[in-house]
């Protein structure tokens, strides 16, 4: 009887993992819809311009090379074969996918404030240093 529960539990976990992987590619992590937040960040970062450049950050969401590398590490550790290239930063859909990968790993509680501030200031952001950015994004969300 215990073996049946273990097998059932394993199958349930596999189904949940599959649902989570599919949600990441659709702009959702753990059934959380990041689309409005990503739209607001895109508006602040580039005005929606997929060719925008600022230093080493490029694309509509102003993605850095280090973020692409971090996404690829997360995907590899999750057993995914998907990988992103630096050129993918110019593709709005792939940029949004990278945002969701980062949020699903570093922000599993789907905290919108943390998502916005960390997008601007990194995972060890300062509230004070990210306040103006946070306010701008929030204005676009409302």
Describe the structure.
- The protein has helices spanning 2-25, 35-46, 65-77, 92-106, 112-121, 127-141; strands at residues 28-29, 32-33, 53-54, 57-58.
- It is mainly α.
- Residues 1-29 have low confidence and may be disordered.
- It is globular.
Which parts are unreliable, with pLDDT below 50 for 5 consecutive residues or more? 1-29
Judged by helices, strands and strand pairing, the structural class is mainly alpha
Helix/strand order, N-terminal first:
HEEHEEHHHH
Placed side by side, the strands forming the largest sheet appear as: 1-2
How many strands? Answer: 4
Strand content: 5-15%
Helix content: 55-70%
Q: Nearest-angstrom radius of gyration?
A: 17 Å
| Shape descriptor | globular
Largest sheet: 2 strands, antiparallel
Task: Calculate the mean pLDDT score and round it.
Answer: 86
How many helices? The count is: 6
